Amino acid sequence: MGRFENAALLHQYSDGIKCRVFLSTLVKFTQQWFNMLKPDSIRSLDDFSVVFMHQFASSKKHQKTYLSLFVMKQQDQKILGEFIQRFNGAALEVPTAIPDILISAFTQGLKGGEFFKSLVKNPPSSYIDLLARTDKYVNLEDAQRHRKTEQRQGGSNVEGADKGGRKGWEK
User: Which residue, 109, 108, 113, is CA-closest to 140?
Assistant: First the structure.
């Protein structure tokens, strides 16, 4: 209802217009619920807001806490880039998380490896610093994965090279 109230405020709707416009936004279950209300049971927009919010309070998306960040883990075979995307998406849903909590939760969720060791040996000074360092390791992972793919597809691109790496050299 918050978005609707903001839009109505912007357009300076009267209460009567707000009621009519809001009703046009109802779909499926909300429309069915509205149609089952007793005639004249709603006398004002405030009455309607209270009844509506009471009816659909259980549908409200609950705000996550910083504790939800500490349960996020990087799976063993998942790449760092995927983990940072999931983590950042979850962090956006936790407006109370301060940078120190973000750093701790992210570090705790990492699988062991060179990046984890780097963060433990030299803790990031800020969440921005952590993200910058993450970018470097994501780029490294991408380069290593690309190199492995090339090696599986036949190794070197130099055709006819002998074991010494020379091509067409006469002995």
Answer: 113
Mutual angle of helices 127-152 and 99-109, in 10-degree steps: 30
Q: How far apart are the first and last CA of the chain?
A: 83
Kindly tell me the burial class for residue 125, based on how many C-beta atoms sit within 10 Å of its own C-beta (0-12, 13-18, 19 or more).
Answer: exposed
The tokens for 121 are 């040996």
Structural domain spans, the chain: 2-59, 67-152
- Measured distance CA(113)–CA(97) in Å, rounded: 26
Tokens of 88: 């950042």
Q: Model confidence over 30-78: pLDDT tens digits?
A: 888 888 888 888 788 788 888 888 887 766 666 788 888 999 999 866 7
164 vs 138: CA distance, rounded Å? 34
Does an H or E element contain 134, and which? helix 127-152
Whole-model pTM over 0.70: no
Cα 28 versus chain centre, distance: 28
